[in-house]
Each structure stands twice: as structure tokens, then as C-alpha cells.
Specification:
By secondary structure, the chain is an alpha+beta fold. Helices cover 52% and strands 11% of the residues.
């Protein structure tokens, strides 16, 4: 029996591998790479920085290249500890990104299959649920932000491990659940992780085969252990979050990026309001987020036997769907006030990832009950035929969007009609037909939100070279008008980002990747004190994309300003590190001996008692040594580092030693030791059992 199950599982894995290869055939066989949106603004540059630091034998705690310095590891969205980051050490950045996304798809499809099997679905139904989830428009949209993708693909694996823990309640299942939950926490994007946590709590609370006492015990035991395993990541993150602009964002910001009413068309008419590759629709607010295919929506309506997990996922799908509307939904407003921490997250539309996984599981139950499909499809066939007629009429419209929508209508109607014919004439292969048509539907429409360009197009971009630039002492500022994708010249049709990304900073990546320190930037979190210093004209907790007045420009050591077609030198700029005399910077008497992200060694010889100013952000954890002795860091302008030095020769060292990271590391190491001991115990016990 075990051997048979193994063969089936291997066959399923092989089928998944083939489907993923077909879905990404452009990337695998034709040298295309996936590069878009937040991958360009944040993820790829941060991964390159991580890889470069690891190669040099340093663990990156601090990032000096954006926002005049910012915590790196404390930003959990970067997923520093995510295992697949290793590909950025082995491959070129854009090729590594593509490999990372493809491997993530494989993780998701295996996790969904295991989840489906654990809730009682058959092999073929589990296969179907996996197809619906992984090739949905939701996951396709997440390819444009691998931070979201990491967490979304691990969600099914987390739910599967918790169900196994509830069903078996042994040490082995406890260890597996702890590992899966911990992996999701450190992989990035706390919002989707938070959603998974809430669903997990609901799952444990409503599981019918356990007493309230056991449920509480399992809950405390599991998440207390997970908290220990992941302390190295979440303790610095909590500290940074409390000091970031998100801490006081409020309801207006939290509800921004809600599911638009027009988006309801997506569920039936994919790409009806534009797609990423053709019309420039923003990934998460585009036309495919929440789309699972028309056929799965029909399958979901099939009657099925009463089952706790089916009811659970129906409830989850309804609540998450209603919550996705943000402040326009009483469900979201209720959750906003009841759930602690929800206020830190924007884009309620992200609730649709819960909707997607829930609907995928419900569709699996529908596949297992196809006995009544003939009656159901006999009703829908009339609507399908009417839809085809309207779709054909719309094809003659001069409006591009209407024509594109009409194609969607005709295609969906034809698929439903073909499915009806199969149901009537070839009922024995009905399930195969449903799966095949679903794959065809999802492959065609989901691929529209995966922006793929030749790797050569990115590599061929003219390099941004700034002459006479001392990166140890100078910064650049990128004017918001310089927002462009790197391949805009080679592929003009993709040069749409100013409108679709709200003029976010998407500079040519070679500027970011050359490690030019910047006073501006874009990230998931920004230190609130720095944002206030910049004096933003608009509240933006995720970036500093603003013009600077002349005073700030000089203080920040901005040497060059990058415009779309030129680089302008800022003549009156101070260096990043200078001596202060009569409120005027003195650059000549300061020498940077050693410069590392978390350690800077400076020699200076002032002729007078003065302040040495280092215009990197003075974040908690920075210390200063003057001639080998610890001294006190004095705030400059309320945000930057400075120290008083007397006349004469001095050596000044600034070093970053995050206490939150140290405490978290100790807790994680102790928890990891316990995890290893328990794992060894289980392995020895299983070996003894098998020998008997």
C-alpha cells in the first residue's frame, strides 16, 4: 500500500513538473526572465545586496544604500532567511529571480496537493485543487512581488501541517508543523503570514474532534515553539515596525488598495479591465487577482457530502471575499477593530489569497461529486450560448478593452459548451475533461499577468556611470521624473509604469545594483523620524519619493541628481561625513579608512573642538568609539549621528550592533537546539519501531 501511494505521489509530482515547465516555457526554453513591479523596486536589488554581503562573509543587518541608511534584516518583507535566496549567489540576478519563482510554484503545488489529501479529497480531486490554486490569477499576480509569492506558496503547506498535527497529535507532526509555520514567518510579507495565522487559529478553534482544553494546549504549544524558532527575525521586525511610518497609518491607509467593485468582472471575465502585459494594469489591482477560472466556479456549485473541511473553507472564502472590499465592507471594519495588528497592513484586496486557496479546496470537493454534473451543466449551457452570441457581437467594437473582454466571453462560453458535450456523450472521462479545460483556461488567462522580457534586453541597458563619485562620502538623489523600467527603450510598450505604479521609484536597476547610496528609495517600511525630516508632501509609509529643498539636499551629502536623460551635479553639497564649524560642513579633514554597512572607521584631525557628523540615520543599535573608547552619539538634526571631538588627531568608529537581533538570535539558537534534540528522538524511535 505504501509503495502504491509512493508511486502515485511520484506520478503526481512528475505531472506537476511538466505543467510548470509548460506554464513557464518562455523562461525555461527561450531565455526570457520575469522582472516587474516590486521585484524591480525592492526585491531584486535587496537580494543582490544580500548575496554580495554573504559572499564577503558578512551578515547584512544594515542597508546604507537607501533612506540615508535603514535596517535591512529587521525588514521582514525582504525574507532574508528564505532558503531560495541561495539562487542569487549562484546565478545572475534576473535569471535567479526566474528560477526562484518557478521553484516557488513547485512548492505551492505540492503543498496544495498535500493539503487537499489531508482534508479527505481523492488523488484526482487533490490534483485539481492544486491546479486551481497555483495557476490562479492570484498566484500569477504574486510573481510580480516574490515577497508575497513566498508566503502565498507556503500557505497550503502550513495549513496541511496544522491539520496533520490536529489529526495525529504526536511529536513528529508537531515538529513538521513548527517547521512549516516558521518557514512562512521568515519568508517575508507579514500580511499574508498574518492571514494564515488567523485562519490557523480558526481551524484549531473549530476542529470538531478535540476538546477545548486540548485545542488551547495545542495552540499554545505550537506557536510558543514557533515564536522561539523565529525570534531572530520577528523581534527586530517588531522593533522596526513600531518605529516605522506604518505604526500610525490609520484606517484610511489600511483600507487603501481594496478590492474594487469593478473587479467582480475578473471572476468571470479575466483581463476585462486590462492586463499587466497589454494595458498596464497594476499587478495586485489588475484584472486577474482573485481569478480561479470560470469552470472551477461551476464545479464549486456541485452538491457534495457534508464535510467539516468543506464547510470551513466555504466560510473562509465568504469572509475573506467580503473583507477584501476594505472600508466599504462591514466585515472588514469589524475585523479592523477586532484583530490586533491588522491596522499595520494596507491593501485589503490581499484577503483574496485566502479566498483563492479556499475556493481551490472547495472545487476539489466538487470534482469528487460529479454524479450530478449533467443537471447542473444543462442549466448553464443556455447561459454559455447566450454569452457566446454577445461575445461575438462585441468583437466588432472599436474599443480595445471591449474586444478583449468579448474574446474572454466567447472563450469561456465555448469551454462550458464543450464540457457539456463531454458530460452528455463521454461521462466516463468527464473529470479528465474538466481538469483539461481548467488547465487550458488558467494557462491562457493567468499568463497575461506574468511580464516576461528577454534577459538580453535588461543586460543591454546603457550603464549609468557617475564619474568622480566617492560612494563612501556621497549620495545620489533620483528625481521622481526618472521613473522608468530598464528595458523601456528596447520595448516601448512596457514603458507604462508612471501611471500603473503611482510614480513609484523604479530607477534603472544598474544604479541600484552599483550600490550608489541614496537619500531616497522605496521599501516596505521607512523609519518615521527620517520621513518627517524629509518633510513629505504626501503620506507614504513605504517610500521616500519626494523632491528635496536645497537645505536638506546639502545636509544629506547629495552629490548628483539623476534625471531621465541626464545627471546633474549638486555643487553645494556636504559629504556624508564632515566636521561642523559655525553650522558649516568641513570636508577636507575627514578620511574614511574602512567602510562596511555596519562598521565605519574614520580618521580626523580638527584644529578646533567640534562635532563629527555622520549623516546616516541614528537608528537604535548604533554605537560610537572615539580613540577606542565608547562615547555617546549625539543626534544631529534630530535624526543623524554625530559625536564631539577635541582638537587633534582622532580615530572614530561607528558600529551597528542590534540588541534586538542579539536577543532574538539567542532565543532562536536555544529553540533550534531543542528542535534538533526532538528530531533525533523521533528518528531513533521510528528506526526502532521499524526494526521490530
Amino acid at each position: 500500500m505504501n509503495r502504491r501511494k509512493t508511486k502515485i505521489f511520484v506520478g503526481v509530482l512528475a505531472s506537476f513538473a511538466v505543467l510548470i515547465c509548460i506554464f513557464f516555457f518562455k523562461q525555461i526554453f527561450f531565455g526570457k526572465v520575469l522582472y516587474c513591479c516590486d521585484n524591480g523596486t525592492v526585491n531584486v536589488p535587496s537580494k543582490i545586496y544580500l548575496a554580495s554581503e554573504l559572499i564577503q562573509g558578512r551578515f547584512p543587518l544594515w542597508n546604507p544604500y537607501i533612506f540615508s541608511g535603514s535596517p535591512y534584516f529587521a525588514d521582514i518583507n525582504l525574507g532574508t532567511l528564505y532558503p531560495l535566496n541561495i539562487v542569487y549567489v549562484l546565478f545572475s540576478p534576473f535569471r535567479a529571480l526566474t528560477i526562484e519563482i518557478i521553484l516557488s510554484y513547485f512548492v505551492a503545488i505540492v503543498g496544495t496537493y498535500l493539503l487537499s489529501r489531508s482534508i479527505g479529497l481523492s488523488v484526482i480531486a487533490s490534483f485539481y485543487s492544486s491546479i486551481v490554486y497555483i495557476f490562479s490569477g492570484t498566484i500569477a499576480s504574486y510573481t510580480n512581488n516574490v515577497s508575497m509569492l513566498h508566503v502565498a506558496v507556503l500557505m497550503p503547506l502550513v495549513l496541511w501541517s496544522i491539520i496533520c498535527f490536529l489529526q495525529k497529535a504526536n511529536i513528529q507532526s508537531f515538529l513538521i508543523a513548527s517547521l512549516c509555520v516558521s518557514l512562512q514567518i521568515v519568508s517575508g510579507h507579514p500580511q499574508i503570514t498574518y492571514f494564515t495565522f488567523i485562519v490557523s487559529l480558526l481551524l484549531i478553534a473549530t476542529y470538531p474532534k478535540l476538546s477545548i482544553k486540548n485545542k488551547l494546549a495545542y495552540l499554545i504549544l505550537l506557536y510558543a515553539f514557533v515564536a522561539g524558532l523565529t525570534a531572530i527575525q520577528w523581534i527586530p521586525f517588531i522593533e522596526f515596525a513600531s518605529l516605522s511610518s506604518r505604526a500610525n497609518a490609520g484606517l484610511a491607509y489600511a483600507s487603501s488598495g481594496a478590492f474594487p467593485p469593478l473587479g467582480l468582472l475578473r471572476f468571470f471575465l479575466p483581463n476585462s479591465i486590462g492586463d499587466l502585459s497589454s494595458f498596464g494594469a497594476w499587478a495586485q489591482n489588475g484584472s486577474l487577482f482573485g481569478y480561479i477560472g470560470v469552470i472551477p466556479l461551476l464545479v464549486i456549485l456541485l452538491p457534495a457530502k457534508k464535510n467539516y473541511f468543506r464547510l470551513f473553507f466555504i466560510f473562509t472564502a465568504i469572509i475573506s471575499f467580503l473583507a477584501s472590499f476594505g472600508e466599504y465592507s462591514p466585515v472588514y471594519l469589524l475585523l479592523y477593530h477586532l484583530l490586533p495588528g491588522l491596522k499595520y497592513f494596507r491593501s485589503p484586496e490581499q484577503f483574496l489569497v485566502l479566498y483563492t486557496i479556499s475556493m481551490a479546496c472547495i472545487a476539489g470537493f466538487g470534482i469528487d461529486s460529479l454524479a450530478h454534473v449533467k443537471k447542473l451543466l444543462s442549466v448553464f449551457i443556455y447561459f454559455a450560448l447566450i454569452a457566446i452570441c454577445f461575445g461575438l457581437f462585441g468583437l466588432r467594437s472599436p474599443d480595445t478593452i471591449i474586444r478583449f473582454t468579448s474574446v474572454n466571453i466567447v472563450f469561456s462560453g465555448v469551454l462550458i459548451s464543450l464540457l457539456y458535450i463531454v458530460a452528455i456523450k463521454f461521462s466516463s472521462i468527464l473529470r479528465i475533461a474538466v481538469i483539461s479545460f481548467t488547465i487550458l483556461e488558467l494557462f491562457i488567462f493567468s499568463s497575461h499577468n506574468i511580464l516576461s522580457v528577454p534577459e538580453s534586453a535588461i543586460n543591454a541597458v546603457d550603464s549609468v556611470t557617475i564619474k568622480d563619485f566617492d560612494w563612501k562620502q556621497q549620495r545620489i538623489f533620483v528625481d521622481p521624473s526618472a521613473v522608468r523600467y530598464p528595458y523601456a527603450k528596447q520595448f516601448p510598450k512596457y514603458d507604462y509604469v508612471n501611471e500603473s505604479l503611482w510614480q513609484q521609484e523604479i530607477l534603472k536597476p544598474n544604479v541600484l545594483m552599483k550600490k550608489y547610496p541614496r537619500a531616497d528609495g522605496y521599501a516596505s517600511m521607512v523609519y518615521e523620524k527620517y520621513r518627517k525630516f524629509i518633510d513629505s508632501t504626501a503620506f507614504d509609509p513605504t517610500g521616500v519619493n519626494l523632491s528635496f529643498n536645497s537645505e536638506n539636499r546639502d545636509i544629506l551629502g547629495i552629490k548628483y541628481i539623476v534625471f531621465p536623460d541626464q545627471i546633474t551635479e549638486n555643487q553645494s553639497s556636504c559629504d556624508r561625513i564632515f566636521l561642523l564649524k559655525d553650522d558649516t560642513c568641513q570636508n577636507a579633514t575627514v578620511t574614511v579608512v574602512t567602510y562596511q554597512p555596519d562598521y565605519v572607521k574614520i580618521t580626523t584631525h580638527p584644529a578646533f573642538d567640534t562635532r563629527l557628523v555622520f549623516t546616516d540615520v541614528n537608528y537604535p543599535g548604533w554605537e560610537v568609539l572615539v580613540d577606542g573608547k565608547k562615547d555617546r552619539i549625539a543626534d544631529y538634526k534630530g535624526i543623524f549621528k554625530s559625536v564631539w571631538v577635541k582638537a587633534g588627531d582622532h580615530t572614530v568608529e561607528f558600529l551597528y550592533t542590534s540588541e534586538s537581533f542579539i536577543y532574538g538570535k539567542i532565543i532562536t539558537l536555544l529553540s533550534l537546539c531543542l528542535y534538533i534534540v526532538l528530531t533525533m528522538y523521533v528518528l531513533i524511535k521510528n528506526r526502532r519501531s521499524s526494526s521490530h
